Structures are given as C-alpha cells and as structure tokens.
Predict the 3D structure of the following.
Amino acid sequence: MQIAKVRGTVVSTQKTRSLTGMKLLLLQFIDADGQLLPKYEVAGDTVGAGIDEWVLVSRGGAARIESDCESRPLDAMVVGIIDTITVENRLLYSKKDEYRRLALGAQ
C-alpha cells in the first residue's frame, strides 16, 4: 500500500460500463517525510474519502480484491482514510490537527 493525499475528483460521463457508479479520485502520493511527490494517479474510492484527506491506496491486482471490483479495470483503489501516522516516535500526520489548522487558516 501507499499513502496519498486526495487532490480532486475525476468525472467521466463516457466510460466502460463496469465503472458506472464508481467514485474516482485524483491522488498525489506522499513520501515518508510527509512531503508531496510529483506523482499523481486516479483511483477508485469505496470508503468515501474527501478532498485533502490522507488515504491508504492499494495498487495492482490487490486493488480489485474488494467485493464487486474484480471485473473493474482499476489499477488503484482507496482502501482507507488515515487518522494518524507516526514515524520514529514522531507524529507525521494527524487528521484532527490538519482540520484544526485548516479551520484556523480559514478565519
């Protein structure tokens, strides 16, 4: 699995029938230091992730293991929304702190 940040949504009115009803997100991958990488990918989402949330991404054949996804042409799937990440006893990311920071920045 990899860690990514949800940067946007992807809407496609013309697509293969097996993707009908699948929410698609534009993700930007994150390194072990919490820095955004220049790599983006479109992934299916069945967990309800939103813009700016950090998520767990399953790629390749593992992305299609989720029920009802075996026949979908997906290379990546959001499989979890991250609450916290700790690296070497240091808090790298906290969803609660991120929301607090965004709320203070919006005032």
Summary: The CA atoms of residues 9 and 25 lie 4 Å apart. The radius of gyration is 15 Å.
